[in-house]
Amino acid sequence: RDGLPIVQRLLERGLDSNDPHLPLLLWWAVEAHALDAREQVLKLFATAQAWERPLIRVAILERLMRRYAAEGSEAGYTACAQLLASTPAPERGRMLAALDQGLRDRPNAARNREAEKLPPKLAELLDTLWKDNPTGVTLICLAARLGQQMAYDRAIALATDPHIPQATRLTLLSLLGEMGKPTCVAPLLKLLEGNEPEAVRLAALNALQSFENDEIADMLLRSYPKLSSRLRSRATEILLSRKTWARAFLQAIDTGRFPAQEVSTEQLRVVALHKDRALDNLVHKHWGNIQAGTPEEKLAEVRRLNNDLRAGTGRVAEGRVLFRKHCATCHKLFGEGESVGPDLTYANRKDRDYLLLSLVDPSAVIRKEYLAYNVQTADGCFFSGLIVEQTPNAVTLLDGKNQRIKIARNKIESMQESPLSLMPENLLKQLTPQELRDLFSYLQSDTPPRIERGD
Q: Residue 412: which H helix or E strand, with range?
């Protein structure tokens, strides 16, 4: 009775839009009353006037839609309908996206969900929007999550249509993998056979990993030699993630069908999680012992590399090329690269011994925020990566190749902290002594080399 009017006045004055803290604090104040004072909250914010207030528009309305959708109740959906009805036409896309995100946040969200019985007002609004724009990707995702078969069929049709914009196809392919209905397996497999862009085929591969279907492994094994190196690498990770698929893949390598050298030590780590002696024997036969070396072996490797570094000078420009090839997938340096691991710009780069030890034995010290987790699903699939997002409905991992993997909580059998870093141990072994000197010259430089036009 007293708190909400105060929050409303603070929001309406609009002086705090650029403050780093106050907009979120104001939202928390609204959220605290969103359920027990639902009618009062909607009276304040489900209005055309609320959209005219910049701070309310930025800090409150989308979050409020997401919160009510995540509730998953008739009262919550009715509140969503009121918010949507008060939304100006140009802003509906944002609110539909918030509604869709809220559905994904539901604690009881389940795959293969039957069509939900929505309050008449929300059902009528969504039906009108569907008739106006039956190809809108946000609306398709939203309706599919609500169990509408028509929307799910539309998602399959658009995701597999080469004439549809690629960004739309990628979004819908992600949806299909998340929804997990077996009817999409055959269309997804056809994408691997067809003349599709690599990004589309990669998205299809990612979606297919969600299904325990031996037809997928058969197709991957048939297609493997014809795939690009990037797709072969992803296919390898998918085949090794399930015990029966890993057996078929490793046996194919054992018979000489595929070259063993294409499979990296990091990719083979997951095989040990299957706890299968026959698989372990195949790994040992073709790759040897892939366990971490002893401390003595690692110290010897550091000494050897130190000798190579002292034997000559490095070239910074060539080192930058090597950084982009071997390190930038996970690390940033001078603003270039990804953020899977620590930003090396601010690391202790001038200390050569520190750098060498970090590269030779990356699992010796792992900062808390970069701890990896091994996740096993109920159908026997293994995933590994950093936890980058958690909701009541799902856990999202980021793997060593900067790929996001979203796993529904109702599918997780176990989730355990990994003792190993996502960073590979043998990164430097593939470099020549001169390449090693070049890489360290760049890693220890004060500023990036001058970038030539077209570089």
A: strand 412-417
Strands 336-337, 382-390: pairing kind: unpaired
Strands (E), 267-338: 332-333, 336-337
Q: Is the separation of the CB atoms in 188 and 204 below 8 Å?
A: yes
Integer Cα distance of 358 and 237 in angstroms: 25
Handedness of CA 255, 260, 266, 267 (dihedral sign): negative
Closest CA to 12 of 59, 63, 54: 54
Token pair of 311, please? 């034997």
Distance CA 165, CA 159 (A): 9
Our measurement of the distance from residue 416's CA atom to the centroid of its chain's CA atoms, rounded to an integer in Å, reads 18
Residues 59-84: tens digit of each pLDDT: 999 999 999 999 888 999 999 999 99
> Pseudo-torsion of CA 151, 157, 163, 169, nearest 10°?
60
Give the separation between CA 233 and CA 216, rounded to whole angstroms: 16
Amino acid at position 445, single letter: S
Asked if 448 contacts 410 with a C-beta cutoff of 8 angstroms, the reply is no
Q: Are 392 and 106 contacting, i.e. CB atoms less than 8 angstroms apart?
A: yes
> How far apart are the C-alpha atoms of 366 and 381, rounded to whole Å?
25
Q: Is the pTM of this model over 0.85?
A: no
Q: Return the closest-CA partner of residue 79 out of 150, 27, 31.
A: 31
Convert the pLDDT of each residue in 112-155 to its tens digit: 455 677 888 888 998 898 888 877 899 999 999 888 888 999 99
Tokens of 358: 């970090």
Query: Residue 353's CB: how many other CB atoms inside 10 A?
Result: 10
Q: Which two tokens stand for residue 450?
A: 């001058």
**Paired tokens of 91:** 């802003």
Enumerate the β-bridge partners of residue 372. 386
Q: What is the pLDDT of residue 449?
A: 67
The full DSSP string for 332-382 is EETTEE-SSS--GGGS-TT-HHHHHHHHH-TTSS--GGG-EEEEEETTSBE
